[in-house]
Amino acid sequence: METIFSVCFFVGVGLTLITMIFGHFLDLIDEDGVDLFDFTIGVPTSPIVYMLFSTVFGGTGLILLQLTNWKIVWILAFAFGIAILISLTFYNLIIVSLRKAQNTSAPDQKDLIGIRAKVVETIPENGYGEISYVVNGNSFKAPAKSYDGIRIEKNVEVNIYFVQDYVFYVTLEKCKLLKETKS
Questions:
Q1: What range defines the domain where residue 93 resides?
Q2: Contact 47, 87 (CB under 8 A)
Q3: 114: how many CB neighbours lie within 10 A of its CB?
C-alpha cells in the first residue's frame, strides 16, 4: 500500500513541477496553452485540482502509514476524505475566484473595436506608442500604432481600429465600418 501512496504523491508533485516549468516556458514564447478541461459538469475539472488531490492523497496516506496503526481501509478512507476536502476547498476558493476575475476584467479584443482611447505615450510616425482605455470601469494600457502611419501626440483621443498580435491600431477618425468589423 505504501507503493500506491508513494506513486500518487510523487506523480502529483512531478506533474505540478512539470506544469510550472512548462507554463513558464509557454509564457516566454507568448503562448496561452491549451484548455483541455473547458466544460462544467458540477465536478472540478481543473488539472491543478487533480494534481493537488493526488499529492494530498498520497502524502496523507504515507504519513498515516508511518504514524498510526490503523487498518488500511481507514487510512484509505481518511486520506481520500482529506484529499477531497482540500481539493474542493482549493477549487472553490482559488480556481473559481481566478476564473471569475479573468472573465470580468479583460474584455475580448473584438469588443474593443471602436472604443475611444487616449494616447499616453506619443506614437511616432510608423512607430509604437501606448494608449489607455476604459472598459466596464476598468482602465487598461496597451501598445499602439497609428493605422494611418502618422504621428499622434500624447493626450490625443483616438479610436481603436483593430487589434493584431496584441498591438492596438488606432486612428484619429471615427470609422464608419467599426461596428460592422466587430462580428
A1: 2-105
A2: no
A3: 17
